């Protein structure tokens, strides 16, 4: 895939040079790296993937965020410097434990500690190994999203000889590498540690064994195999791999990587990766350390545990752009990654998209949608916000699009699924999300006597309005009702006539009684979309106890 040319007007260039958006800040580090010297043939961006478990959103986040930095770099260099993005899979690592979320875990036990690309595929299908299957899952999504990248397999690179030159250098500089590594290890581990991990010719397992000899001239290592047999292997040709920390630095040196981001769990090791890269003749890349994603219990998400969200799970309930937004926002802040965050991410994405045309270039380059869409955000009109759609599904108990489109077409005449395909897509997402996550947790309650009187007054006030009243008119009528009830007056707020404003408790009561939720959208907008007659029937159902029942 060839990247399209970036738009480079003088206004964009000026805004980019001053932009405080984090992708531009990272791109400036790469420019400063060369400090006016000749550019390399290609500036190389890299992301890493450990296919020990099914791909999760954190993996996707590295590619999305790195792509944003890459695009910012192209803008700042006026698209004159060729770039590449490699997504590198550490699929030659040994399977140290069997993931919890694979079928027939017992069938994989004989393959423990073998390279992931030598472990049979537990999921069936055409992929030849567990590693190949997980690699394919990653590539499928990256391709669907339209990333420009090159996939790289550690197994392929080791076996094809792509790393041979640097591996031979590692044998030559073995003592220098050990001087870096040994101080980071405990006394017991120091006695057996080696940066080289041979692949046993007998068992096919990745061996963590001490070296008896490292022959730099011959390019070989000698060790005792699992059965005690002294064995000599060349460090080249995929018969030996490196421990993961030296492997990081070796790969940077071998490929000439200029930029790589990684999670905070790697931060303390970054100095080790850098030093080994330099020992092996390379220059350490620029780093960006991001915070980790957490599940709903505040635990780090893990591929092997399968907690948190998978790529497919997010995309079942929301557009891909909302996921990209979640990755863009506050990358240095730990964030929970579970189903409850999806609606807000969807809502915010379209809010940013709506704001973009009204902004100047400085604001646009700080707007997430500019980075998500490589500088070309689409022009999308969304007559009904996603949060309002969710509450419409909740109130109407709609289970198909036609029912919702009946409400939408009445609320916004001329709006159809055909001329608003993006809204139609969100209608489908809203129905699915409601059925799976909102409906099972709905908890209606019956109103007390004072609340019943307030709801009766609200229904009567709505009855006085024309059926086609807009959201603002309805909202003002609702506020008028609440202001007359002492229980819902808030002295800290002021009404237009200088009296007390309306407490949020009034709207909380409405949503608890009528929709079975603690929170909801602006009630006037909801009633305008749902219809005044339908809203009054909903109030009557709440008063009669039919909803709580």
Could you list some keywords that capture this structure?
549 residues, alpha/beta, Rossmann fold, three-stranded antiparallel β-sheet, 45% helix, 11% strand, elongated
Describe it:
The structure is a single chain. This protein is of the alpha/beta class and about 550 residues long. The chain folds into four domains: about 1-160 and about 290-380, Rossmann fold; about 165-240, no CATH class; about 380-435; about 440-549, Arc Repressor Mutant, subunit A. It is about 45% helix and about 10% strand. It is built from 23 helices and 14 strands. Strands 3-2-1-9-10 form a five-stranded parallel β-sheet. The protein has a three-stranded antiparallel β-sheet with strand order 5-6-7, with no helix packed on it. The longest helix is centred in the N-terminal third of the chain and has 20 residues, at about 55-75. The mean pLDDT is about 90.
> What general form does the structure show?
elongated
Identify low-pLDDT runs.
none
Q: What share of the residues lie within helices?
A: 40-55%
The CATH C-level class name of the largest domain: Alpha Beta
Mean pLDDT across residues: 91
Radius of gyration based on Cα positions: 29 Å
Biggest sheet strand order reads: 3-2-1-9-10
The tally of strands reads 14
Distance between the termini: 57 Å
Number of helices: 23
Indicate the structural class: alpha/beta
